[in-house]
Amino acid sequence: MYPSLTFRDVSVALAWLEEAFGFEGRVLDEVGAMVTYGDRTTLIQLDRPEDLHGSHLGQGWVYVMIEDADAHYERAKLAGADMQGTPHDYGEGYRGYSARDLEGNLWSFGTGPVK
User: Do the domain assignments include residue 115?
Assistant: First the structure.
């Protein structure tokens, strides 16, 4: 099972996600690609309202576990991501932040409990 997000232009989205969030991208075909972060994968698809029961632009939310929330935040901020606040501590030993991509999908990034 993979999360899937739609974009107006898959190649533009792929390049932006690689730059802003450090994902590794791979084109699958003319309407799809995938991004990976470690062993986690998200599908990137062309928004095709006629085939996908309406438009899905900006309707997704993905949470990605990372090693260093502050460094990741700085990278995304430099790339022009729409930051939704700054890195903050939450719960028992978690730290993270959220940002919106170029279509408005919400990406949250966070670390696990500090040992």
Answer: no
Range of the domain at 18: 4-110
Task: Reply yes or no on whether the pLDDT at 69 is more than 60.
Answer: yes
The answer to the question of residue 40 being in a domain is yes
CA–CA dist 5, 105 (Å, integer) = 8
Question: Taking Cα atoms as reference points, which of 97, 93, 99 lies closest to residue 112?
Answer: 93
Residue 37 within any structural domain of the chain? yes
Domain count, the chain: 1
Split at pLDDT 50, 70, 90, the class of 66 is: very high
Give the residue-averaged pLDDT of 57-70.
91
* Angle between helix 69-78 and 10-21 (nearest 10): 130
Give the alpha-carbon dihedral of 14, 43, 112, 77, to 10 degrees. 20
